[in-house]
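In response to the reviewer comment on reproducibility (Comment 2.3), we provide here a single inverse folding case reported in full, input and output, so that an independent group could reproduce the run without further information from us. The structure tokens appear first.
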């Protein structure tokens, strides 16, 4: 099977799909809009998940699990929330099938549910129905719960990892006694998201608050981390929502405070999903396939022995065994690829496609010279080192690859981020791709007109604001400095 991918410059969308399928990250499911995450793709997700999970637990969050099925009446309790998700909801109407007169399966009319059930699009409603049972006093607060789960949003236009009808994610749901605590929680999670995505996944971010039209349905404020993909489009990589008392009032969740008065609690919710893998591909991938930052790579070092006989393989195995042992002791995933019937060239291409940060090539000549050949995936450079220098060299190289991938992505983002106060120039910049920073008068109507004319949206209102700007569209004094871009 050919492992080559369509060049980025020829067809970016095809390139993206090629990398996913040829690197064996995922495949299309039998139901339209679904995907199967293959073992290598799932290993990447497990690594990302593990890092986030540790960070959540460091900040006193605990994991729980809530049902996949949600009574339809629950969604009706928060009007803005239900309006935001109504068109994407999958509904269960019957509890069993029967064989009909034609001999095929159909819903059993006798099993029609008294109340239809929604397949979880997000869990705010079912979680807040339980918080009503669990929260009675200030002593019950705060509740800091996270859930790792799957959700279903029946998308019409789908793309692997970026937008599928079912996907994996984490969703945090917290309850607090005061507004200040809930707002602090919202920002705390935003900082965790930024730290993990930038420092582990090597993806530089723009961080800020969403406009009213772009915020989460039912939120008071939504904050997001926005990444620039290789085609200069934006990807919303994670969100943290301050929900105020919207859900606690909808579900009548009150607590008795220290002054013996009853009060509604304050809430947050927040999530990242498997679309982060899509971001990873589009930020770091090249025409040879994936390029993975070492900190999230399932295999950080692959050793490919070049041998002609079993005797050669035995000698090479003994030669590199100290490296394997050292890496294992230091928790660095290392794989010795001794598969036969596959040429070294095939293996080199396969591991390049899968984005393994470092490849060691070792043959009998290297053994005789007490040397190793090292190939870096980030810049495709090769070097020859002495084996007694290997452990230090490899550890240093992994750190350098982690840093270089981030710096390369950061330079690309900076080179394609622009500022303007002229609307005609703005339209040209948006047409060419990239992030455009400019003033906005804060009016929904202005935002809507710009979106209609350019297909660009406000990605976020950066946390650090510039002042004394004019609105890019109306030329009125700007209320905010914002970032516009076309987005996935």
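Designed residues, in position order:
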């Amino acid at each position: 099977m050919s492992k080559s991918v369509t060049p980025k410059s020829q067809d970016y969308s095809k390139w993206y799909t090629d990398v996913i399928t040829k690197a064996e990250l995922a495949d299309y499911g039998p139901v339209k809009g679904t995907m199967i995450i293959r073992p290598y793709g799932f290993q990447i997700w497990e690594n990302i998940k593990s890092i986030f999970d540790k960070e959540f637990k460091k900040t006193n969050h605990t994991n729980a699990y809530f049902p996949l099925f949600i009574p339809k009446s629950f969604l009706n309790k928060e009007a803005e929330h239900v309006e935001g998700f109504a068109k994407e909801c999958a509904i269960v109407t019957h509890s069993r099938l029967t064989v009909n007169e034609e001999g095929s399966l159909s819903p059993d009319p006798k099993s029609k549910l008294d109340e239809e059930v929604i397949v979880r699009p997000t869990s705010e409603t079912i979680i807040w129905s339980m918080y009503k049972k669990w929260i009675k006093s200030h002593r019950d607060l705060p509740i800091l719960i996270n859930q790792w789960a799957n959700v279903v949003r029946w998308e019409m236009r789908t793309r692997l990892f970026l937008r599928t009808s079912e996907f994996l994610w984490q969703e945090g749901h917290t309850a607090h006694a005061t507004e200040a605590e809930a707002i602090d929680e919202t920002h705390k999670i935003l900082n965790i998201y930024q730290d993990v995505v930038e420092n582990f996944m090597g993806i530089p971010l723009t961080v800020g608050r969403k406009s009213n039209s772009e915020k989460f349905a039912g939120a008071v404020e939504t904050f997001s981390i926005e990444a620039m993909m290789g085609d200069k489009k934006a990807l919303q990589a994670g969100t943290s929502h301050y929900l105020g008392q919207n859900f606690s009032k909808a579900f009548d969740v009150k607590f008795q405070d220290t002054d013996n008065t009853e009060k509604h609690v304050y809430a947050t919710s927040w999530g990242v999903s498997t679309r982060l893998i899509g971001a990873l591909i589009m930020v770091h991938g090249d025409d040879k396939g994936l390029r993975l930052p070492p900190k999230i790579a399932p295999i950080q070092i692959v050793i490919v022995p070049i041998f002609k006989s079993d005797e050669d393989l035995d000698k090479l195995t003994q030669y590199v065994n100290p490296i394997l042992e050292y890496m294992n002791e230091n928790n660095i995933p290392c794989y010795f690829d001794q598969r036969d019937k596959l040429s070294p060239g095939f293996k080199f291409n396969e591991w390049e496609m899968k984005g393994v940060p470092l490849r060691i090539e070792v043959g009998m000549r290297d053994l005789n010279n007490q040397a190793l050949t090292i190939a870096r995936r980030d810049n495709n450079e090769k070097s020859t080192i002495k084996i007694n220098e290997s452990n230090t060299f490899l550890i240093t190289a992994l750190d350098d690859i982690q840093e270089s991938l981030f710096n390369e992505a950061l330079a690309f983002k900076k080179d394609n981020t622009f500022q303007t106060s002229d609307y005609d120039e703005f339209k040209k910049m948006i047409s060419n791709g990239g992030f455009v920073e400019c003033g906005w008068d804060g009016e929904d109507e202005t935002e809507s007109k710009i979106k209609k004319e350019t297909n660009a949206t406000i990605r976020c209102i950066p946390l650090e604001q510039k002042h004394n700007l004019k609105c890019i569209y109306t030329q009125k004094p700007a209320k905010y400095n914002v970032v516009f871009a076309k987005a996935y």
